[in-house]
Every structure is written in C-alpha cells, then in structure tokens.
Amino acid sequence: EAGVAQSPRYKIIEKRQSVAFWCNPISGHATLYWYQQILGQGPKLLIQFQNNGVVDDSQLPKDRFSAERLKGVDSTLKIQPAKLEDSAVYLCASSLFETQYFGPGTRLLVL
Amino acid sequence: SQQGEEDPQALSIQEGENATMNCSYKTSINNLQWYRQNSGRGLVHLILIRSNEREKHSGRLRVTLDTSKKSSSLLITASRAADTASYFCAPHQTGANNLFFGTGTRLTVIP
To answer: Which chain A residues are within 8 Å of B30, Cβ to Cβ?
Structure first.
C-alpha cells in the first residue's frame, strides 16, 4: 500500500511570496488533513476534508491560507503572501477510520 | 484544552532500559492514540486505545489508560537506539472530528 505523498519536500521563499504544497492521500481514504508543525511543537490542524468537503477549518488563517481538494482525492495548500512566522513543516495526513497516516511533510523556510 | 500534554518533555535512557511517557488530557474521549515522529519525518501511528480499554500491548509497547484520571502512559520495553524519536499522544475527544496533538516527549536512547 503506497503511503501519503507530499511535494515538494523543501521550499525556501522570501516573505510576501506565495507557495503551494501538494498532497496525495492513500487510495480510498476519504478524510484528508493538513497540519502545521512549528519547530519544537506538535502538529496543529489547519484544515480537514471529508471527500471534497471541508469538515473543520477553524484554525486556518483564511486571510493568507487556502486549501482545496478537488474530486475528493489529492489536495493543495497555498499560502499567499507568506510571512516569516509561516516557517514550519506542513504535514498532510489521511484516514479511513480513526488512525491517521502521515506523509513526510514539506519543510518551508520563509526568509 | 483538547490536546494531550506529554510528560516528561525530554527523556534520555541507555539502550536496553525501559522508557515511560505520560499523557494527560482534560475532556471525555472516544480513544487515545500514540504517534512517533523521527527527526525530519512525518508521524507514524503506534497504538490506539479505546475509552473502555485499560491496557493494550503491541510488540514492545504497552499503553495504559485511566479515564477517571484522564491520563495515559506509554511504556517502551528494552529500548533500542532506533526508538530515538518524539512521541505524541492524541486524545480523540468525544464528538470531535479530529485529533489534538501536544508538544510531545523527546526520547533519546543512548547506544
């Protein structure tokens, strides 16, 4: 069974630039999550999708962050414009039932 | 707070020793999950214990749950250098759609 795929693995941008991350969940997993993990902290949920509908985006900074999951499969997370405090690892996870399966993450550095 | 709080924040032991990590939470839960994160990687699910269970084993892992005290512990027996990682507990709050991760316990196993 293939795992959760994410790209790119690393990204360095200047503040005020935009960036997009891509996630392909495990086949058949209806639920997809995006987390932000700042160094030394645990993952913080940004948005949760059930198929292509949003279940929870209460912690997504909607003035600069957006996410979509077209066709209920893969997903993209965008930041526009980026701030220095957005430097973090962005993790994608998917689940069929209660267990979440995580991708390797995208490490973002905003200069 | 919906998240789990792990204790200690950091733990250093010799290879072959046992490692115990604790987790406290504040809400009623359906289940509680433990995840491991190796440096620079995504999280890996270790074990799930349901609210009506008191103890669960998986290989060298033993998890206990005390819902009256709202606490859980993760025991890793006969530790190996490869167990060096951060360990997170994630309570699944009753009625919630997702997990809330704490800041984790950083375990270092010295060869």
So the answer is: 98
Confidence band for B1, pLDDT divided at 50, 70 and 90: low
Summarised one tens digit per residue, pLDDT across range B6-44 is 999 999 999 999 999 999 999 899 999 999 999 878 899
Q: What are the structure tokens assigned to B83, written together?
A: 């167990």
Nearest to A43 among B33, B48, B101 (CB): B101
Looking at beta carbons, which residues of chain B come within 8 Å of A41? 103
Which residues make beta-bridge pairs with A23? A6, A75
Give me the residue from A42, A98, A103 closest to B42, CB to CB: A103
Establish how many alpha carbons lie within 13 A of residue B88's alpha carbon, considering only the half-sphere containing its beta carbon: 24
Per-residue pLDDT reduced to its tens digit, B76-96: 999 999 999 999 999 998 888
- Whether B4 has a pLDDT exceeding 90, the answer reads no
Which one of B47, B51, B99 makes the best mutation probe of the A interface by having the most chain A beta carbons within 10 Å? B99
Distances in whole angstroms, Cα of residue A4 to Cα of each of A1, A9, A40, B7, B70: 10, 13, 23, 29, 32
Strands A10-13 and A106-110: parallel
Which of B87, B71, B92 lies closest to B13, judged by CA?
A: B87
Contact B18, B78 (CB under 8 A): yes
* Alpha-carbon torsion (A29, A34, A39, A41), positive or negative: negative
Residues of chain A with pLDDT under 70: 1
Can you tell me the distance from the alpha carbon of B14 to that of A101, in angstroms, rounded to the nearest whole number?
30
